[in-house]
């Protein structure tokens, strides 16, 4: 009988711990819509600070042409990006948080996807915010510049969720 009670207590502890890790968190920002990004520009979404007690981001963005996603964890980094998209030469071209940002990869003919690592899994956010999520169609850092002399707007479907860890 004592063994059954011990095993039952252990199972509840494991299940409770797993629930806190897997499904835990309060959704503080979500975007699920198509956005149009003009050539030479980026679509920017400001996200709330989740550094205390911690948080995570999960996203998937899909379009018919290559593009980039940047995640800036400071206004200063975003300022360099804005300088570039305003047509000026920034002193630096920071890539943002490389663990969160991504280059869109071709997944089928005329289908490109950028997503958080591990197939769109949640990625921890450790820096203090606010944060800036950017879908880029400018050629910033010369990674995925618009393809033609007269590029058209880029239509991207963005599925983005930011969660704040719940303390139990």
Please, could you describe this protein's structure?
By secondary structure, this protein is α+β, with helices and mostly antiparallel strands. The longest helix has 21 residues, at 2-22. A hairpin with a 2-residue loop joins strand 6 and strand 7. Strands 1, 3, 6, 7, 8 and 10 form a 6-stranded antiparallel β-sheet that branches. It is globular and about 55 Å long. The protein contains 3 helices and 10 strands, in the order H-E-E-E-E-H-E-E-E-H-E-E-E. 27% of the residues are buried.
Topology:
Blueprint: H1 2-22, E1 26-37, E2 42-47, E3 55-63, E4 68-72, H2 75-85, E5 102-103, E6 105-108, E7 111-115, H3 117-120, E8 123-125, E9 131-136, E10 154-164
Antiparallel strand pairs: 1-10, 2-9, 3-7, 3-8, 3-10, 4-5, 4-9, 6-7
Total beta strands: 10
**Largest sheet properties:** 6 strands, antiparallel
| Spatial separation of the terminal alpha carbons | 30 Å
* Structure classification: alpha+beta
Number of helical runs? 3
What portion of the residues fall into strands of 2 or more residues? 35-45%
Spell out the helices and strands N to C: HEEEEHEEEHEEE
Gyration radius from CA atoms, angstroms: 20 Å
Keywords:
38% strand, 168 residues, alpha+beta, 6-stranded antiparallel β-sheet, 10 strands
Concise overview:
This protein has 168 residues and is an alpha+beta fold. It is built from three helices and ten strands; from the N terminus they run H-E-E-E-E-H-E-E-E-H-E-E-E. The N terminus is likely disordered.
């Amino acid at each position: 009988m004592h063994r059954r009670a011990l095993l039952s207590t252990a199972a509840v502890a494991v299940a409770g711990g797993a629930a806190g890790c897997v499904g835990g968190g309060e959704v503080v920002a979500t975007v699920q819509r198509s956005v149009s990004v003009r050539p030479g520009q980026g679509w920017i979404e400001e996200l709330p600070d989740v550094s205390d007690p911690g948080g995570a981001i999960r996203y998937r963005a899909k379009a018919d042409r290559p593009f980039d996603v940047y995640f800036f964890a400071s206004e200063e980094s975003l300022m360099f990006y804005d300088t570039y998209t305003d047509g000026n030469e920034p002193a630096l071209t920071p890539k943002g948080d490389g663990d969160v940002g991504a280059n869109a990869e071709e997944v089928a003919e005329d289908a490109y996807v950028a997503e958080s690592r591990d197939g769109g899994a949640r990625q921890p956010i450790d820096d203090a915010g606010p944060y800036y999520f950017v879908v880029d169609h400018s050629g910033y850092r010369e990674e995925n510049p618009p393809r033609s002399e007269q590029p058209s707007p880029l239509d991207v479907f963005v599925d983005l969720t930011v969660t704040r860890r719940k303390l139990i």
